[in-house]
Amino acid sequence: MTALLQGTGLQRSYGPTPALRGIDLEIGAGEIVAVTGPSGCGKSTLLHCLAGILRADAGEVRYRDQDLGLLSEASRSRLRRTEFGVLFQFGQLVPELTAAENVALPLLLAGSGRREARKAATLWLGRFGVGDLADQLPGKMSGGQQQRCAVARALVTEPKVLFADEPTGALDVLTGEQVLTEIVHIARQQGTSVLLVTHDAQVAAYADREIALRDGVVDHSGLGLGIGS
């Protein structure tokens, strides 16, 4: 399988503390890859580097054979509004915006007209069972409803790669399963690649393959990964 997104020799430190110590990772088109491991092993840092949110201290991230490290911050932001979708554990909806306005935001930032963006946002909210909350502010929603809106926002641009950082961490088991099932269904339908960061083995089971991290490196032992801890 030809790599759509590739990280090679990725290193990243926070002050004197290394978070990534030479990670290699490839994701093929339409592939769902779970990155697992205990807290503090570098999972989220790896996701942020691959998504162009953080710059690696060393190594290279290539998307469609383009080196993200050579792009300006504005170009990387544009990439995240069009080709990439990012989903965080707690959704991070804009509290002053309604559900529909939150979901429409990436489209508006990418230059879509307001009516077109609103129509797409309403459609995607409906796909995740929260279409009736289009005019509701996040503060009036449950955690599960907020996360469904956040998933809709991450997918509304029909990205080539979805980066999902502990997407069910704030949800109960049933709601988490429902959200994951829908993410996988839509990813398969659209051919979207997914990088799924999780500490939960049940969540990782939704992926095509799993990469385990420990202390900033890929753990090839298959033992003591701390999944579920």
UniProtKB/TrEMBL annotation:
Annotated keywords: ATP-binding, Nucleotide-binding, Transport
Superkingdom of origin: Bacteria
SUPFAM superfamilies xrefs: P-loop containing nucleoside triphosphate hydrolases (SSF52540)
GO cellular component: plasma membrane
Entry-linked PROSITE patterns: ABC_TRANSPORTER_2
KW Cytoplasm (keyword) present: no
UniProt domain ABC transporter: residue ranges: 5-227
InterPro entries per record: AAA+_ATPase, ABC_transporter-like_ATP-bd, ABC_transpr_LolD-like, MacB-like_ATP-bd, P-loop_NTPase
GO molecular function terms listed in the Swiss-Prot or TrEMBL record: ATP binding; ATP hydrolysis activity; transmembrane transporter activity
Any Pfam family matching the protein: ABC_tran
Protein name listed in UniProt: ABC transporter ATP-binding protein
Organism, as annotated: Actinoplanes auranticolor
